[in-house]
Amino acid sequence: MAHVVVVSDTHLPRRAKDLPAPVWAALEAADLVVHAGDWCDEATVLALRARSARLVGVAGNNDGPDVRAHLPRTATFTLGGVRFGVVHETGARTGRERRCDADWAEAVDVLLFGHSHIPWDSTTPRGLRLLNPGSPTDRRRQPTGTWLELDVAGGRLGDVVLHRVPAPGAPQR
Predict the structure, then answer these.
(1) Which end of the chain has the least Cβ crowding within 10 Å, N or C?
(2) What is the pLDDT of residues 27-46, one digit of tens each?
(3) Do β-strands 110-113 and 74-79 pair in parallel, antiparallel, or remain unpaired?
(4) Domains observed in the chain
């Protein structure tokens, strides 16, 4: 079984000076870390690369040349028999499943994306699973920052868990 942590839209150091400690702990414990874009600085790319067992990432619309020099716009990989795609933007909420089916359903089983800062978990009519981890540092209209953890084994996507960044001073679980 492989344990994967998915983050996006970290926007460092503009939205936060660093990732929250629980997010770093999850990233360091994962077999694979996926970042779906909007890192916003090269230092974040290098830090995640150094502190992750394996990293797959893409550049987002807010990433400059320093970040884009390290990352593609899209990525695909296979883990435990499951085909994954990673992209920053999938367009507007309305019509997302139809667009992603047209663009990705033949190539991947799971599409990981970012951009909205809002968690998303749906399955398209053709069976493509769409997952957005939200943002651990810029929650927008969410009550807290978020990230995803998922397990892959035996050619199947197992548990998918949305984690919320604890509020400062909240007890850690």
Answers:
(1) C
(2) 999 999 999 999 999 999 99
(3) unpaired
(4) 2-164 (3.60.21.10)
